[in-house]
Amino acid sequence: MGFVVQGISKPPLLGKGAVSSASGDETDAVVILEKIPFQEENITELLKKHTALHLQMSNDIYSTYRLLLPPELNEIKTTVVYPATEKHLQKYLCRAVYLIRETGEDYKNVTLPFIESQSFSIQWVYNILEKKAEADRIIYENPDPINGFVLIPDFKWNQKQLDDLYLIAICHRRGIKSLRDLTDEHLPLLRNISQEGGEAIQKRFGLMKTQLRVYFHYQPSYYHLHVHFTALSYDAPGCSVERAHLLSDVMYNLELDSQYYQKCPLAFAVRADEPLLKEFQEAGKA
Ligand code: DD3
């Protein structure tokens, strides 16, 4: 959780450990407060040493409480950015998100022209496909230019533990922007990603296909078709219902109807500061 503290002339935290800054004038700060994870060895202490316990509700075998802890067990991790730059402020000010329901027509009239007007660079994707970057990190490759792909750890994952396993399969074929472009013509590619990607992860990391969440994002963060592989036990960012589309469901829908993803409405969330929201508002669709 982040807060913006605006127009202050002193660091936002006073007392011991207060951060000092070079600039003297009134500036803004960002203060990020996070509850730190429980440590298992502290749990019994926590339940014994509470300063107050208020029953909130009780129903059958279930009850909820407000458990108040002594200060030493109630630590809050606090990160301060002071003085904060405009970029820091934007990131923490625009927290409002809105859900857009994009029909097939909306995609053609609003989203596609917007995507085409932007010059999102996906050079990093081409660098991976052409072995100009991260070549030593590739886990598996099917080199077929139409139905092949590269499987590589997403850089959000440090590969040190399987708990937050995160890989991406990037297809070799260029010009497939997202889920919206898929037809039954792409089924052989999707089947390869599903089968060979799953096998490669089992072989290298020991996780079975049934322990993986394999999905597309819509909207994706880059418009070159790719598939996310994350550990099922990991609540990965972007795996929520308004963004993730399981590869197995996508393949089935394409088998039912080749034009499924050109027709179906797709919902996605946009932050208040995202230009795509403005496009939808101007088209009277949000
Ligand atoms: C990206 C989505 C993209 C900023 C940030 C992330 N995995 C990547 C470059 C190389 C990579 C990724 C774009 C960009 Cl923080 C702008 O992600 C990447 N390499 N997700 C890997 N392996």
Range of strand content: 25-35%
Bound chemical compounds: 5-[(1S)-1-(3-chlorophenyl)ethoxy]quinazoline-2,4-diamine
The total of beta strands comes to 13
- List the helices and strands in order: EEHEEEHEHHEEEHEEEHHEH
Total helices: the number is 8
Rg (CA only): 24 Å
First-residue to last-residue Cα separation: 27 Å
Descriptive report:
The protein has helices spanning 43-48, 86-93, 104-117, 123-129, 187-205, 247-256, 260-263, 275-282; strands at 2-8, 27-35, 52-59, 62-68, 76-81, 97-102, 140-142, 149-153, 166-171, 212-217, 226-231, 244-246, 266-271. The chain is globular, with a radius of gyration of 24 Å. It folds into two domains: 2-77, Phosphorylase Kinase, domain 1, CATH 3.30.200; 95-282, HIT family, subunit A. α5 packs antiparallel against α6 (247-256). It is α+β, with helices and mostly antiparallel strands. It starts with a strand and ends with a helix. The longest helix is centred in the C-terminal third of the chain and has 19 residues, at 187-205. The strands form four sheets. It has a six-stranded antiparallel β-sheet with strand order 7-8-9-11-10-12. Strands 1-2-5 form a three-stranded antiparallel β-sheet, covered by helices on one side. 5-[(1S)-1-(3-chlorophenyl)ethoxy]quinazoline-2,4-diamine binds at residues 124, 134, 152-155, 221-222. 5-[(1S)-1-(3-chlorophenyl)ethoxy]quinazoline-2,4-diamine (DD3) binds at residues 124, 134, 152-155, 221-222.
